[in-house]
């Protein structure tokens, strides 16, 4: 059995998850960690990909609201750039 039909979707979800995470962190991951991304950040991206893959619809019927997968916000908070600038 081949799962090639999901390759394009998963590739897109990698970009979506990375983009979301970088916006939350306040920096580009590759720029901050050119010699290797911390495992926790990699794991946060994987959690987001799995979440997006399992929840593809804009609305779910018969399902209660859910928060982000366990640990993603904690990882973001641990690695976030907390500096603010005025311009």
Radius of gyration: 15 Å
Number of helices: 4
Task: Sketch the topology as an H/E string, one letter per element.
Answer: HHHH
The chain-level mean pLDDT equals: 84
Give an overview of the whole structure.
With 87 residues, this protein is mainly α. The protein has one domain (4-52, 67-79). It has four helices and no strands. Helix 3 (39-54) packs antiparallel against helix 4. The longest helix is centred in the N-terminal third of the chain and has 19 residues, at 7-25. The radius of gyration is 15 Å and the shape is globular. The model has no long low-confidence stretch (mean pLDDT 84).
Keywords:
87 residues; mainly alpha; 0% strand
